[in-house]
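Standup notes
- DV: blocked on the single-chain target, sequence here:
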Amino acid sequence: MLVSRSARLADLTTLGVGGPVERLVEVGTEDELVSAVRDADDAGRPLLLLGGGSNIVAPDDGWAGDVVAVRTRGLRYRSTARAVEVEVQAGEVWDDLVAATVAEGLAGTEALAGIPGSTGATPVQNVGAYGQEVAQTITAVRVFDRAARRQRVLRPADLGFAYRDSRLKQHPGDLVVLTVTFALVPGRWSRPVGYAELAAKLDLQVGETAPLADVRAAVLELRRGKGMVWDPADPDSRSAGSFFTNPVVPASAAVEGCPSWPAGQGRVKLSAAWLVQHAGFDRGTREGRVGISSKHTLAITTEPGATAEELLAFAEKVVTGVQERFGVTLVPEPTAVRP
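- DV (later): unblocked, structure below
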């Protein structure tokens, strides 16, 4: 366990905003993680858990308490009758896990390559991309319950997965993710490719399969072209990835011309990127040190020195513009942390 009093949230997040941290605690083992959480709770210090820092807008005032940076690592494999279960420590870098499972010949996460952040954050957001989401493969999430002061194992029925949502997200901070277990399918071929853009990239029809390594490589190429792979040398990757979720609306409220997909129960999912662009916020639109990525209209990027106040004001301007133009309300995907 490493404790520091000179850190800034801007240096710990991909958006690069946020003020000083009163006490940064970096933990490398599960026991250290639980101990750090208990210590903060026992002392009554405010606690912020931080993985890869890729899905938060950190406050300009910083954090007057403990920021626990989760750096736990490790994978454990177990074969079952139909799958291979992989129990993963919360601090494991997500794309490292995808690379490892593809190399092992295990299908189920290959289309989620290149997403920044840690594994422990994936069930919170029900992370998804290119036709896959983690709810399709997660079988268990082991957590530390701060109120009960004990560990619990949550199954999919307990997690309430929905589009970019879960019960963990709805009750932030109550449960600390320790490990996530995935059930993956042995074999060198992917699950059926369910996203048209990815299928076209692989020269497939939607529903066909391809070698796992080819799918991962194609996803990484697509994401890099959109600035969606974290790279300190690429200013377009100074973002939280997609800043808004695709809105789900009644089919009767679909926007003419906007790409949409069936979402069940008489609803459709609209393309947030299309809505942002057609509300007047095209690629490269900027105000001061924040603005729309030059590579993808769904990412908001920052320049060095940007503040959370600037970023959130610009995001609100986009929300207002889309609402006024189309009558659709966009919902931010990253969490705006309040001090």
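- Follow-up: The mean pLDDT is 96.
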